[in-house]
């Protein structure tokens, strides 16, 4: 994932995700958004620990994302926020849009839970107690903010008018995010466990599954779902200057160590602040933490990427620590096109992005337990009911395979002449340790103000020949490297709505070293629990050949893709509420 920079233009774009998560034997999560379809296959049942917890923006007119939460199966960490509690404004009451979800177990069925989402702090109105803006355009008020601590004491984060200002609405198990509402652009939201705590996830030995329709997302646009190792309380207990906490969307961090955040560690990020666009800028400090990009994609490109860090929680960086000190901003990516299969993903390809499809990600541990060492991250697709294995690597110097392992990452970095920062920052072991501590679900859609998303779907870096190892082969329907118009959307026609069903399903991953071959996948009626899924199975679905070099090992089974659905747009960096 690259830095989440400012938006570029106006273009109707939708990314709809339907999303389900299952905590094997512990619980299961469903986010519903239409009639769900359950995909089920057998997988060994392990005994998990059950201790789970869980920017850029793009100008878009008449754009919205609907996220429907049907049921979620999670056991959350209980972390009590400090009473000490940035300041809290009183102009607008903060009422988190409610979302209905369910907790489910394999033996006990499902229980409905009243959940919610919260808006990221960077989008909120920041003002003094008298209502004077602390931040206008891309400039801090020098009187209210002479220094970081005084600014935090003088300035208040206010509640959000979710529907009227930000275009965020909910109805039962549905969440709608409008990307352009009045002067506001985008939104970044986090799933809440309660009014003051983020929902925490542990992905170890689990499976995360979602359906997505990216047909309306063109090159240069990134619809993403990812996890960041944020504090469950938004940093409120650790930093006395933070009186707002997770309730007001504080504490964001990722492996890019973003410096565009207005507050970090309970202090205003005003030192060295320089405007980078009409509404945003960067300060001296950044905010770093482990990040797992489960999905960064559009209709022509897709990648999943772990980004380990040496820090073990949200950490403020300064200077070079923000670029190379704490984290691996590049990560170890698996991008099928970049790895030699140019006909695997895209419109009309094997994974046909003209239609909705299912994305399955499995986080395997070395000993097959939910407390083991993360050893492999696997990807499977299901398109029109057909199970499709992830593409095999077809690059000289990289052994044939189709998943992310430490060995793959080392070979990839060597073949592409890249520094293996991934290994230096902890590799999969470090990423897995972050999962064990708990990560927060972040939802957003963005375009890349800095690099035009060339790192995802064109030649990058632009100062090197496209023939260099690791540079993606030229695509005839894309601009040449470095020629993408700015603003990005100027030369594009409006795209039709892209509908995506996101069910992140957390289920136990198969045992190592090699699970049995992938069996046919039965089709199930909507809203089934794991208990009755097998009994109601219908005829088998076919399994499609990969059409690339044969893999040296069989692929794992898919475990019960829950029928949750979730439609979403990935908001990018913050946009302040100038209308407030």
Summed up:
The chain is mainly beta. It has a single domain, classed as Distorted Sandwich (1,4-Beta-D-Glucan Cellobiohydrolase I, Chain A), CATH 2.70.100.10. 7% of the residues lie in helices and 27% in strands.
Would you give an account of this structure?
- The protein has 580 residues and is mainly beta.
- The chain has one domain (16-544): Glycoside hydrolase, family 7, domain (1,4-Beta-D-Glucan Cellobiohydrolase I, Chain A), CATH 2.70.100.
- It contains 6 helices and 37 strands.
- The model is unreliable at 1-85 and 479-580 (pLDDT under 50).
Blueprint of the fold:
Elements: E1 16-23, E2 27-31, E3 38-39, E4 64-68, E5 87-88, E6 98-105, E7 109-119, E8 126-127, E9 135-136, E10 139-140, H1 148-154, E11 156-157, E12 168-171, E13 174-178, E14 180-181, E15 184-185, E16 189-192, E17 200-201, E18 207-213, E19 221-228, E20 263-264, E21 267-268, E22 274-275, E23 281-282, E24 285-288, E25 291-297, E26 302-307, E27 315-318, E28 345-346, E29 351-352, E30 357-365, E31 374-383, E32 386-389, E33 403-404, H2 406-415, H3 421-424, H4 427-437, E34 439-447, H5 454-457, E35 521-524, H6 530-533, E36 540-541, E37 543-544
Parallel strand pairs: 5-11, 28-29, 32-37
Antiparallel strand pairs: 1-2, 1-18, 3-35, 4-13, 6-7, 7-16, 8-11, 9-10, 12-13, 14-15, 16-34, 17-34, 18-30, 19-25, 19-34, 20-21, 22-23, 24-27, 25-26, 30-31, 31-32, 31-33, 35-36
């Amino acid at each position: 994932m690259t830095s989440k920079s400012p938006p570029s233009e106006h273009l109707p774009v939708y990314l709809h995700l339907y999303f389900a998560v299952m905590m094997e034997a512990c619980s299961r999560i469903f986010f519903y958004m239409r009639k769900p379809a359950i995909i089920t296959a057998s997988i060994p049942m392990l005994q998990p620990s059950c201790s789970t917890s869980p920017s850029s923006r793009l100008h878009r007119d008449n754009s919205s994302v609907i996220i429907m939460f049907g049921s979620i199966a999670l056991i959350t960490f209980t972390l009590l926020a400090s009473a000490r509690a940035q300041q809290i404004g009183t102009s607008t009451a903060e009422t988190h849009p409610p979302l209905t979800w369910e907790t489910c177990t394999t033996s006990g069925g499902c229980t409905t839970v009243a959940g919610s989402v919260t808006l990221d702090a960077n989008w909120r109105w920041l003002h003094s107690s008298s209502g004077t803006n602390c931040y206008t355009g891309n400039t801090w008020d020098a009187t209210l903010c002479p220094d970081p601590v005084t600014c935090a004491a003088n300035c208040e984060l206010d509640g959000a008018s979710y529907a009227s200002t930000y275009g965020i609405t909910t109805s039962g198990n549905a969440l709608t995010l409008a990307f352009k509402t009045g002067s506001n652009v985008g939104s970044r939201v986090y799933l809440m466990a309660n009014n003051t705590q983020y929902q925490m996830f542990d992905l170890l030995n689990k499976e995360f599954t979602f359906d997505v329709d990216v047909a309306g997302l063109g090159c240069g646009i990134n619809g993403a779902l990812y996890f960041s190792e944020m504090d469950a309380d938004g940093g409120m207990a650790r930093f006395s200057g933070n009186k707002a906490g997770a309730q007001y969307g504080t504490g964001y961090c990722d492996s890019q160590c973003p410096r565009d955040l207005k507050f970090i560690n309970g202090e205003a990020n005003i030192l060295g602040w320089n405007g980078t666009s009409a509404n945003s800028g960067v300060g001296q400090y950044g905010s770093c933490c482990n990040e797992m990009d489960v999905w960064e994609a559009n209709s022509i490109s897709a990648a999943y990427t772990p980004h380990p860090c040496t820090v073990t929680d949200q950490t403020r960086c300064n200077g070079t620590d923000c670029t190379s000190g704490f984290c691996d901003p590049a990560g170890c990516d698996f991008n099928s096109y970049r790895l030699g299969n140019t006909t695997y993903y895209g419109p009309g390809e094997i994974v046909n992005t003209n239609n909705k499809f299912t994305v399955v990600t499995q986080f395997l541990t070395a000993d097959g337990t939910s407390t083991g060492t993360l050893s492999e991250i696997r990807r499977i697709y299901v398109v029109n009911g057909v199970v499709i294995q992830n593409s095999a690597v077809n690059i000289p110097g990289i052994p044939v395979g189709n998943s992310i392992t430490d060995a793959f990452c080392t070979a990839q970095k060597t073949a592409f002449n890249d520094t293996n920062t991934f290994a230096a920052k902890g590799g999969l072991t470090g990423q897995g340790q972050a999962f064990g501590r708990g990560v927060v679900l972040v939802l957003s859609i963005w375009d890349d103000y800095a690099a035009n998303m060339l790192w995802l779907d064109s030649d990058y870096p632009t100062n090197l020949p496209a023939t260099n190892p690791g540079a993606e082969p030229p695509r005839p329907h894309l601009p040449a490297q470095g020629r993408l118009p700015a603003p990005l959307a100027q030369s594009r026609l409006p795209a039709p709505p892209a509908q995506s069903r996101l069910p992140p399903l957390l289920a136990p991953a198969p045992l190592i070293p090699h699970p049995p071959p992938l069996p046919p996948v039965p089709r199930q009626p909507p809203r089934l629990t794991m208990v009755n899924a097998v009994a109601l199975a219908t005829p088998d679905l076919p399994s499609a050949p990969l059409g690339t070099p044969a893999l040296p090992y069989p692929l794992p089974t898919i475990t019960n893709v829950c029928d949750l659905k979730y439609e979403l747009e990935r908001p990018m960096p913050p946009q302040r509420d100038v209308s407030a």
